[in-house]
C-alpha cells in the first residue's frame, strides 16, 4: 500500500475516513452538462414518458430546473393518482396503457419525499396500501420456505421497502425477512453476474431501516446483511475501478457513501471508483436519463437514503438549456418490436413501441406493463423469445464493454424489471 496507506491514515486522523466515498472536485461544467441532458426529458409529460427518477435525481443534486420541477412533480402526481387509483371496473384496453409498475410507484413515493412531503391523505394512503400489497404478494411468491422468487425482482422488492421507509411507513418483519434471507442464503444474489444495482438497492433499504429503526426485532440481522452487501459490492469492483460496470457504480456509491463501516478496503475501493467515474464523465459516458439521475446525487454527496430527512433549503444552481441540444437529448425515434413466444398455450404475441436503442430490459418491461407479458412466458417457452420487425437487437459481447458481465438467460430473466444499462443492447 505504501504512500496510499499513509494518505488514508492521515485522512482518517483528520476525520475524513467516513466521507472518503464522496465524489468531490468534479468539474462543475461537467456536472452542469449532465443536468442539461435531463431538461428535455422534463418537457415530456405523457404518462409513458414521465419518470420519477429524473425528479429524484435533480432534487438530490446540486442543480435545479426552476419552475419546471414543480410542474413535473404536479404532472407526476396527476398521472400516478389517476392511473393507479382508477376504479377497477374500467376494464377497457386503454385503461392499462399507462399504468405504472409497482417499481415506478416506489420511485414516485421517493419523488414526493424529495420535495419534503410525506405521502398522506386519502389518495396517498391508497397508494401506500397498493405498494404494501405488492410487497405482500411478492413475499407469497417467494414462499414460506424461501424456494420461490419475486414475480418482478429483488430490485423492485428492495425499492418498495426503501420507498415506504423514507415515508416512515413500516412493513411487516416477514416482508423484510424475505430480503434478509435472500442476501444471507440465496447464492444467485451473490454471484458475479447478478447486477450490483440489486445489491446496492437492497443495501439502501437496509440502511434506511437501520437508521429509522422501523423493524427493531430485525436490527441485528439488518446490520449483518448490510455488512455482507458491502463486502459483495467491494468484491465486484473491476480493475478499472467500477463496481460491476460503469452504469451500476453510481448506485453502489450511493450505498457506500453512507457506510457506517469504514475500512481501509472501502477507502481504497472508493478512491479507485472516483477516479474511474471522473474519467467516464470526461468521456461523456452517461447519456441515459435514468443513469444520469442516479449519478447526480453521488456528485452532490447524497443518496436515496438521505430522503429520510431531505434538505429542501440547500442552495442549488439553476440549470439553463444547452446552447446546442446534444444528439442524445433529441426526441428519440420509436420503433415497433414484435415479441413472440411459442411453445406455450396460448402462444404469446404482442407488439410494443419503444425508443430506438432501447435495452432488452426496457422492451420486456414495456411489454410487462402494457402487453400483459410475464416472466413465466419466457420460462414456459424455455427462453425461446424472438424479437423482430424493423430492427433486430443484438448483444454487445466485447469483453471491454461495460455490459459484458453475466449476459446469460438467468441474469436476463432477473433483469426483466431490474436495472440493465440501456447501452447494453442497441438496434
From TrEMBL:
Coiled coil: none annotated. PROSITE patterns: COBALAMIN_BINDING. Residues 1-18 form the signal peptide. Gene3D superfamilies: 1.50.10.20, 2.170.130.30. Interacts with CD320 (via LDL-receptor class A domains). It comes from Bos indicus (Zebu). It comes from the Eukaryota. Belongs to the eukaryotic cobalamin transport proteins family. The keyword Metal-binding applies. Primary vitamin B12-binding and transport protein. Delivers cobalamin to cells. It is found in: Secreted. This is Transcobalamin-2. The gene is TCN2. InterPro entries: Cbl-bd_prot, Cobalamin_Transport. Keywords: Cobalt, Cobalt transport, Disulfide bond, Ion transport, Metal-binding, Secreted, Signal, Transport.
